[in-house]
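#structure-requests
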Amino acid sequence: MRTFVSILRDSFREAVDGFVIYIMLAISVLTIIVVACVGYQPAEAEVHLTKSIKGFAVFIPDKGESKAISAVPGVQYEATSIKVNGKDVLFDLEVTSKLDPGILKAGFPEPFRTAVAGWMKKPYKSEKRKIPPGVLRGGRAGGDTNSDATLKELEIALAPEVSAEEAAAITDDQMIEFIKNQFGAHYGCTDVKVRRRSVPEAGKYIFEIEAINLRGSRGWGHSLSFLHWSLGSAADTPLGLVVHVIEDVLVNGIGGAVLLLISVILTSFFIPNMLRKGTLDLVVSKPVGKVQYLIYKYLGGLIFITLVSTITIGGVWFVIGIRSGMWDPRFLITIPALVLSFALLYSFSTLIAVLTRSAIASMLLTIAFTFGLWLVGYIKKQLDVAKVMGEGDLDGVSNVFDILNNVLPRYKDLDKLTSKVTSEGTYTPILLRFQDMIIEPPSYFGVLGITLAYIGGFLALASWRHATRDG
């Protein structure tokens, strides 16, 4: 243990002497400051609530537990008498059944009661609807949306089978439970007080709503500002989506790439400096085995990047929590994800360093290796989207990149898994179900297994070559 600490201290001295560590810490602090300067302004209740409440027509069966979504036609939701108390919102929720009164008198199940009864049931039947992701994003569909097997699928529950007797048996408490669940599904707001008000009009229901912190919930629309300047973002963009873009695109994506690049440059000197004649002889005479010393040096680099990642990601999470009010800890999964990505790149760098004993070769080849993995993942993603959009015959090229993505380390897939986990802490349940159609996350075991196998393989080759090499 004392030897390992000594080697770690030696690696730290190398980093400090190169001044790169100061640059990394400065970038970390700058990133935290920039994120702290971002402000989140909730949308005006009159405008946003009036528009967004109409989405209550969509619900999640099995009391919000199903993976499918469903809807009952003929139900309209409107928000009236809106009052705002800070981030709390008080209003009347008017639910109207838009069916001809004659149809209702003929014994047809009343739509709102049908929706509540359907929400309480497991989906009696659901189907996978193949829809291009561009449709959800407001883009064009393109191509044959019925035959392309690559189209993403969303499990949609068909209109529930509810008899008139079942609909008529729905109680006020069940209606209230349904309304509360809708606030959780669409806004992520769970502290809601609901009271039904009696009205003489058939097919119409009025609920008095007091939604605590509704304007601060992850599903409420927000606009962004930087210091005192508006960033021009739409005021109806959900807060959770805005935070996810900052966390996943700016921090984990761009920031993570910069952090990994600088770390590769910094640590590319560790192993070659260790292998310089005289340095290694002095160390192994203590005695410390050559392979043991190499592994210690590798672990020292991992500890170094872990500390920097923890400072950066932890600081960003803290200031986002203060500024937005969202404190979901799942964003912190970015720390081990970045460390694992660096562990892969550093194991390759270690192998090249042992083979060439050149810091420059180790640095340049590792950067090229990183870019190659990123390029394969990026092209595969674009080909998948192109196939979904029906843009030409790309099966041959797509198959090649599918094979490359499967056999090479899953560098980009680590990003997909991280994005999947962090979105679960920022998206609303409804938005998550739509995300399942757009994003098809890779297998956890496949990504981690292949990545760890490559790390072990690179280190094993480096250790073997280092142990069998003279001098």
